[in-house]
Amino acid sequence: MTLRYEELRLDSEKKQGEIAEILSVKRNTYSKWENLINDMPLEKCNELANYYKTTLDYVLGLSNTREYIDTPLNIDWKLVSERLSELRHLKNLTERELSSKIGFAQTTYSYYEIGKRRPTTMKLLSIAQYYNVSIDYIVGRSNNTLISRK
């Protein structure tokens, strides 16, 4: 799995500064995200997926299929909390058990489920990989739990 920030930028023949401007951040901030020095906020990653007209799963390397999405999609934070809780219950796990398996503090994960805190891009990627589900599903951009792996 490889994040595709740089690949997508180069394919669109853009410079880091141009993508930073699109995301309303400084070039240095975007550069740190692209070089994986800092974790891109999920809202900005969503903006990036909308700009490239594709899925979060593709941008974040969960999927090898670049689906075309013409309509900008938003993150439904209430649904994120609900789906995280549903996924955990489907595995019959307590928050403590799940937190231990994915390496997060239990309180951090608990706050995600009750909507007191928003997961970062990399934290949500870890959760999606653990459950083997689509990030687009977790955030409400899709109702399909499956990741397209072609």
How would you characterize this protein structure?
- The protein is built from ten helices and no strands.
- It is an all-alpha fold and 150 residues long.
- It folds into two domains: 55 residues, Orthogonal Bundle (434 Repressor (Amino-terminal Domain)), CATH 1.10.260; 62 residues, Orthogonal Bundle (434 Repressor (Amino-terminal Domain)), CATH 1.10.260.
- The protein is globular.
- The model has no long low-confidence stretch (mean pLDDT 95).
Short description:
This protein is mostly helical. It has ten helices and no strands.
**CATH superfamily of the largest domain, please?**
lambda repressor-like DNA-binding domains
Number of domains: 2
Order of helices and strands: HHHHHHHHHH
- Residue share in β-strands: under 5%
Q: Which CATH architecture of the largest domain is right?
A: Orthogonal Bundle
Structural class per helix/strand content?
mainly alpha
CATH class of the largest domain: Mainly Alpha
Broad shape: globular
Strands, total number? 0
